[in-house]
């Protein structure tokens, strides 16, 4: 997913571009001059990066090089093992709960203590 800004007849318009099956879809967001559209564009751009307050979880790598979609398992493992509820809320907004549960169950990098906590937490949240 990416945000495109197209200039048409001197005005800028924002589009959200994403892949749907074999097609690339452009969803119109609105004119960039609109403050609500500008805020949404910034939020969509920030969703692709590790937020500043969670970079401590990825001390062994450059957080700017982490791809939120490609490295989903790595991110989920780090948050479940070393993160708190605020970082957990962040990954819940990024990934489906089913994916988080699958990583929790299958990962060898998450301690049994952490797995037990998140199993109880996720079971009660479902």
Largest sheet: 3 strands, antiparallel
Principal-axis shape equals elongated
- Given as residue ranges, the uncertain stretches (5+ residues, pLDDT < 50) are none
Task: Please give the count of helices.
Answer: 5
Record the strand order, biggest sheet. 1-2-3
Architecture overview:
- By secondary structure, the chain is an alpha+beta fold.
- The protein has two domains: 2-46; 52-125, no CATH class.
- It is built from five helices and three strands, in the order E-E-E-H-H-H-H-H.
- Strand 1 and strand 2 form a beta hairpin.
- Helix 4 packs antiparallel against helix 5 (112-125).
- The protein is elongated.
- The two termini are 28 Å apart.
Explain briefly what this protein structure is.
The protein has 126 residues and is of the alpha+beta class. The protein contains five helices and three strands; from the N terminus they run βββααααα.
